[in-house]
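Work Package 3 (structural annotation) set out to generate three-dimensional models for the target panel prioritized at the project kickoff. During this period the team completed the workflow that converts sequence records into discrete structure tokens, so that structures can be stored uniformly alongside our sequence database. As a representative example, we reproduce one entry of 253 residues exactly as it appears in the project archive.
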Amino acid sequence: MIMRSARTDIQPDYPKQWQQLSQGELARDELEKALEPIVARIFGYYLVKIGSLSSQISLPTCTIKNQFSCAPHANQHNSLYAKSSSLPFQNNSIDAFVILAELDFAQDPHQIIREIDRAITVDGRVVIAGFNPFSIAGVLKYMPINRKNILHQGRFFTASRIKDWLALLNFEIVQQENLVYSSLFMQKQFNSQSPVQKFCKRYLPWFSSMYIIEARKREMPLTPIKPVWQVKHKFSTSPIAARNSQSSFKKAN
């Protein structure tokens, strides 16, 4: 399987906070609610939130005490100042990664996934949130509506494409959740408890504006396990063996 390149020569504008996105604070709140049960079952010693938007997410249900934020822009939420395409972590040292909308504004998202694969431990978890190109927001992104909205700079990768990238690096997809049924370009605020939101979540899940993917790192054996063969010794019944046994018997007599 050949992976189609996702690298672009143009660096998209990078959002430094959720307020730069139309209805960004509401989207952040919805992500925090969706992340609560996911991070509650993740165990380990180190968790890293990659990107400026990820660093502003609260994870109160996470049991991992050592949590760090890594972003290319320094702010009060960041623990480390570094690019997501060049993480300052040793190999197999991080138990979990949380990446929210980081791939959508990355120049080379493949490199970010490779860095995560390098730094994550065996059975480690990665949680990725992105924008759905098949949603109303994905369609409006290509239209001249609210051109100042930084979402026009987003690349909007499909969830299936993200899962293909992870599968090529031996990640097992644990679950996918769809959320935020809104255009994200209009000024009208959405209510997650409204009948429209509940109807779309139940009957039109694949048209959500955002999605969350949880995956687990699996280790593939380097060499196949060979079966242990037991050799059974059999007496030969060939004529040559019979003549040799007769001659030996005559000499003994």
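The chain has a mean pLDDT of 85.
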